[in-house]
Structures are given as C-alpha cells and as structure tokens.
Amino acid sequence: MLSSKISKITPSFTIGISTKVNELKAQGEDIINLSIGEPDFPTPVNARIAAVIAINKNKTKYDAASGLKDLRNAIKNKLEVENQLSYDIDQIVVSSGAKHAITNTLIALTDHGDEVIIPAPYWVSYPEMVKLTGGTPVVVNTKKENGFKLTAEELKASITEKTKLLFITNPSNPTGSLYSKDELIEIVNVCIENNIYILADEIYEKIRYVDEFVSIASLSEKAKEITITINGLSKSAAMTGWRIGYTASNKEIAKAIASLQGHLVSHPSTISQYASVAALTECHHEMKTMVHQYEYRKNEAVKILDQISGLDYIKPEGAFYLFMDISSYKEKLQYEDSYSIAFCDMLLEKFKCAAVPGIAFGNDDFIRISYATDIESLKEGLNRLKSMIESL
Ligand code: PMP
Ligand code: GLU
C-alpha cells in the first residue's frame, strides 16, 4: 500500500528516544534525558516579543515563498559580517527549519540514481532524507584518529560518475569535531575538480569552543558557486520549535528552491520569521551566554568521563554532543544485533539515563550524549553512565 520510497526509511532515532523518555517521565519515572540535541534555554526575550507584536499587528498573512524580505536582509547581513560571504537576498531562502532547507536542496539537485556522499558518523536524518528525495546515499566511513573528519583521499575514493553532492557537517553532529580551513580547502578542491556540489550544514557554527570557523562557501568564488550553505535558528538561538532554517546558494539553485517551496509549503510561519529577525539582530548577547554555558557543561562532563576506565571520546570543539567509544566493554554485554542499542537500552532501563546509540549515526561502537541540558542533570546522567560501566 505504501510507496517504495517510504518503505525504505526508518523513523528518526533521536526524536523517537526523546518521545519515549517523555512518556516514561509522564508515568513518573526519574529519567535523565541526554538523548536529544535540543537547547534547554528559553528563546531570547526580544525574539518572543517580536512574535507577539507580529501576531497583534496581524502580520499573519501569506508572504514571499522565499521568506520575509526583512529576514532575508538580516540573514544577508549575518553572512557578510560573520562569514565573510556576500549574497543578494534572492540567493537566500528561508525554510521551516534546517531539515526543510536540506530536503529542499536535495529535491532541487538530485535525480533518481544520483549519489550523495555522506561521511559517517553522520547526523541521523541524512541518509533517510536522501532516500526520500530519490537519490542514493553513499556512506563513507571516516577514521577515529582523524576526529571522524572526511579526508580528501577518502572522498576521492568514493566518487563515481553518479556523484552529485557531498554532505559536510561543520561542527559535526554527532562528534563535535570541527574542520580546519586547510582540511576544507582540500575537500573543496576535490569537489571542484569532479563537479560535485557541497551541502554545508553549518547549523552548529555559533556553538564552538575554538576560535577558527571557516564557512565552506567563503573559501573562494568557485567554492561559493558549488556550495549550498544550510543554517538556522534552532540551535544558536534555542528556537527549535519555531522551525526556521535557511539556504544560501547560487541564484539558479535558490530560484529552484523558492519555487518548489512555494508549491509545497508556501513559506515558513510569518510569526516565526518575525521572531527570527529579532533573534538575528537583537539577541547576540543571549546567544553568546548560551555558548559559554555549553562550554562550562562540556568541561564538567569531560571531568566525569575522564574518571571512567576504558571510555574514550572525541574531543569536542563544537556543537553540544559527546561521542563516546564504548567498544572496550563489548565482551561484557550480551547483545544480538546492535551493541550500541543494547548498551543504551541497559542505560535507560536499569540506570534511567537516555543516550543515543551510535548505530543511529552509522557507528555501532559509540554512543552519543547531548549536554544541552542543565548541569545537575548532566552530572547525574553521567554518574549513572559511570555506575553502569562499573557494574559490567
Ligand atoms: N542538521 C543537523 C546537523 C542537526 O543536528 C539538526 C538538528 N535538528 C538539523 C540539521 C535540523 O535542525 P532544525 O531543527 O533547524 O530542522
Ligand atoms: N538534531 C537533534 C539531534 O540530533 C535534534 C533531533 C532531530 O532533529 O533529529 O538530536
């Protein structure tokens, strides 16, 4: 009965675990949720006020498919000032979250049979998004010793004549790694030589603990031509439920995205868009404060992890995740299909702490925790993880 497209995909692990945790909590269970990557901070106050004003002034009608002019201007300024990227506003399309910006890009660029290279570990939704929009995901394993960052050699080895697009997530979900400028230049050069577009998912760009961040499209005019930059307000401004993301791309792609979006959803909620104008222009201080908090939590989390014998993790330079290697306990746990699922099931059922199994990101030897949660819960959750490992 269902289409072949839909029968090939699985539900979102991250959303699924979090929904399960909320159900258990509602039943009175004392669960620490370190699974979903969702800022625990409130949306900045001026963004909320802007939304209320928009509602009260009846700014609640249809508008341009590519997004409010005011918002695209605010994004244009952000890209100029923070990323040294100069775009016209008709190269920017505002969508309903970064998820939507990514699927729009895939619909605009990929035909049936086109291959999309996804470095693993990857964010859980990428392969499913590619399958749903008709392309073929090509998962390329990266190495732990490289911080799970794709190298130019690994990229070259995975290119075929059908390769159309490469996904780069910087900073990475789930690893927290950040690419250096030199690493990006090598990757971009391979893409330029082979006529491959780059989907640069930079949604965690503002959440980082090192100074250097280079937006891929800013590397050269040629890089800008082949790159579709994805960003949004969900993570940086704690605005997950408002559903605002965007693409910045060359004019042809932007025009295609705007027309397909016009047919499929018209545009994202105007109320959320007014809130986002305020977030981008008036809320820098709150955003910075959140990043300082994440950094503090990360440092505290790492102190606990360093006390756990046999546990290794990728050094987090950005985003709000810790990707932990649990392979040294493999013989100590009974499992059938997936080790990381068995590990997370035990952590949730016996120790009441939720984490995401690495298999959701394409690596069964790891688990991911999010530290976008208050410090007490974070410490308690990690102490429960420590107790579980000690009990094995
Ligand atoms: N990309 C990455 C890497 C993410 O972790 C997320 C998290 N949801 C998204 C995109 C989607 O973000 P949004 O909430 O804006 O759709
Ligand atoms: N991106 C976040 C995560 O990886 C939120 C959940 C989701 O959108 O999948 O946990």
Characterize the structure shown.
With 392 residues, this protein is an alpha/beta fold. The chain has 2 domains: 4-42 and 285-391, Alpha-Beta Complex (Aspartate Aminotransferase, domain 1); 60-281, Type I PLP-dependent aspartate aminotransferase-like (Major domain) (Aspartate Aminotransferase, domain 2), CATH 3.40.640.10. Helix content is 43%, strand content 14%. The protein has 14 helices and 13 strands. It has a 7-stranded mixed β-sheet, with helices on both faces. The chain has a 4-stranded antiparallel β-sheet with strand order 9-10-13-12. Strand 9 and strand 10 (321-325) form a beta hairpin. Helix 3 (45-56) packs antiparallel against helix 11. It is globular, with a radius of gyration of 21 Å. The N and C termini lie far apart (45 Å). The model has no long low-confidence stretch (mean pLDDT 97).
Give a summary of the structure in a few sentences.
This protein is α/β, with parallel strands linked by helices. 43% of the residues lie in helices and 14% in strands. The site of glutamic acid (GLU) has 10 residues, from helix 2.
